[in-house]
Design goal:
Its cofactor is heme. One of its GO terms (molecular function) is heme binding. This is Alpha-methylacyl-CoA racemase protein. Its EC number is 5.1.99.4. The protein is of the alpha+beta class. The chain has a single domain, classed as Orthogonal Bundle (Cytochrome p450), CATH 1.10.630. The protein is built from 16 helices and twelve strands. The strands form four sheets. Strands 1-2-8-5-3 form a five-stranded mixed β-sheet. The chain has a three-stranded antiparallel β-sheet with strand order 4-12-9. A two-stranded antiparallel sheet has the order 6-7. Strand 1 and strand 2 form a beta hairpin. Helix 7 packs across helix 16, helix 9 packs across helix 10 and helix 13 packs across helix 16. The protein is globular and about 75 Å long. The model has no long low-confidence stretch (mean pLDDT 93). Bound molecules: protoporphyrin IX containing FE.
């Protein structure tokens, strides 16, 4: 047989064993990361799960994470289908997360500076004051603070003041409800469409519409007066004026409220997981407090100071490893392509299980242990490219990654500097939720025993 006549044979994609009718739905609802890991162990890097009445191919592990950033990966995967119902719902012409190729690159270009860590450079004293303000309303001494919710308020306040100039705190509940329904019904589709007719969603959605309408009016007024601020929203409005093809009127509402959708659950869940890890793991709290106290003793804090937080940085990385907010990325195959000896057919909807390697002994010894020191150079021999992907992989990697890292570093440092906290009980085990964004359950609480340090003010950078 000549080379041209040779027919390529591919491996069969195995179906993951599951329950009759329900397939893997219960496992997926309970702990998607555990399902993807078990299946990877049992079947290898490609398998098919049966979840929520749909059969879907998963490509998983380090191989899949690396594939997403390759030329072939970029050409073979697109995001459109998963975000299309959301785009349609809002009547927008495009969405950052939905687009690929040139339009996607242009949109990222518009938002790159606003979402970067430069947005908060030189403003750490303001950030500390924002965190203190949030502490005084949601983390009161003697109370049991609902950690995820308290962080949701804190991050809206932080993002609002840093990225947009004001924080819409009276809308936090509406933003949360809105995200919950939109992601569950329109993106992950784990809830039926009629949920969007429920009064709770309709009310929240109306309020978020009101918020974005007010934001548009405010920023248009700035544009007319020539006083558009140098922040994310200023950049979006400038792009709307200069490139209406890229940022038309119809897209403003989603773009202006976008930072909250992108940052609220992701940051709140990660910070809550970090708080749990710090309070639950012997010896870690004291080290975090020492590092936080040393940082706050500086009085003027710079970005470098935050990036040098070894213990706190390690705790945040561990939180993102053990409780990743994006267990898998959702994509569609743009063409037939081969992956690890399997043929993935065109138009197939895929989960890319990039977090599977977070839980593998081969890369993270004792993966169930919260160990902030595992990222130190001397301990990181086991780490290899592609094994750690909390911010995703490929063209859609988190645009807010650097900003999120400094915000989270400062927030944990300020919180543990200021407050003396404990878990409800020494042996408390964290419960988790899976949808719309995996993370600690909403009923996770910590006891606020008292204030360790007063809310003294930081001094702005000269
Ligand atoms: C712990 C914090 C965060 C984590 C773990 C995280 C994780 C992620 C992941 C995994 C993706 C990729 C999704 C995909 O490929 O389908 C993503 C995308 C994105 N994130 Fe984050 N994120 C965090 C915080 C933030 C914050 C604070 C912002 C901005 C306020 C932000 C803005 C974005 C944007 C704009 C995208 C879309 C990028 C694109 O489609 O090109 N993220 N994030």
């Amino acid at each position: 047989m000549s080379a041209a006549e040779e027919i390529k044979t591919y491996k069969n994609i195995p179906d993951v064993d599951g329950l009759p009718l329900l397939g893997n739905t219960l496992e997926m609802a309970k702990d998607p990361a555990a399902l993807f890991l078990r299946a990877y162990r049992d079947y290898g890097p490609v398998y098919r799960v049966n979840v929520f009445g749909r059969k879907q191919i998963v490509i998983a592990g380090r191989e899949a994470a690396l594939f997403m950033s390759t030329k072939k990966g970029r050409e073979s995967l697109r995001s459109r289908e998963f975000w299309e119902p959301m785009r349609e719902f809002y009547g927008a012409s495009k969405m950052l997360t939905r687009e690929d190729g040139e339009v996607h690159q242009r949109l990222r270009g518009v938002m790159r500076d606003g979402f970067s860590r430069e947005a908060v450079r030189g403003r750490y004293h303001e950030l500390a004051a924002t965190i203190d303000d949030s502490i005084s309303s949601k983390w009161k001494t003697g109370s049991e603070a609902p950690v995820v919710e308290a962080f949701q308020y804190m991050i809206v306040q932080e993002l609002g003041e840093i990225l947009t100039g004001s924080a819409p705190l009276e809308y936090v509940r509406d933003i949360r409800v809105n995200i919950l329904y939109i992601l569950n019904v329109l993106v992950t589709q784990v809830r039926p469409r009629f949920f969007l007719g429920l009064p709770e969603f309709k009310k929240a959605n109306k309020r978020v519409e009101e918020l974005s309408r007010d934001m548009i009016i405010e920023f248009k007024a700035h544009a007319e007066k020539g006083t558009l601020p140098n922040n994310l929203l200023g950049d979006i409005m400038r792009a709307h004026i200069e490139h209406p093809d890229l940022v038309p009127e119809t897209d403003l509402s989603l773009l202006l409220t976008g930072p909250y959708v992108a940052g609220l659950d992701t940051v709140a869940n990660t910070l809550a997981a970090a708080v749990y890890g710090i309070l639950r793991t012997p010896g870690v709290l004291e080290r975090v407090q020492k590092e936080a106290d040393a940082l706050m003793a500086k009085k003027t804090i710079t970005e470098d100071d935050i990036r040098e937080l070894i213990v706190i940085g390690g705790c945040i990385r561990e939180a993102m490893r053990m409780w990743p907010i994006a267990v898998a990325q959702m994509r569609t195959a743009t063409q037939d392509f081969e992956f690890e000896g399997y043929l993935i057919p065109e138009n197939e909807k895929l989960y890319i299980g990039t977090s599977v390697s977070h839980f593998m002994e081969e890369y993270f010894p004792d993966p169930e242990v919260f160990d902030p020191d595992r990222y130190l150079d001397e301990n990181a021999q086991h780490m290899q490219p592609g094994v750690y992907s909390p911010f995703g992989r490929g063209p859609h990697t988190c645009l807010g990654q650097n900003l999120a890292e400094v915000l989270m570093g400062m927030t944990i440092a300020r919180l543990f500097h200021r407050l003396d906290m404990t878990l409800e009980s020494e042996d408390y085990i964290l419960k988790t939720k899976s949808f719309p964004t995996p993370g600690p359950a909403m009923d996770f609480k910590v006891k606020i025993k008292g204030e360790r340090m007063p809310a003294d003010k930081l001094i702005p950078e000269a």
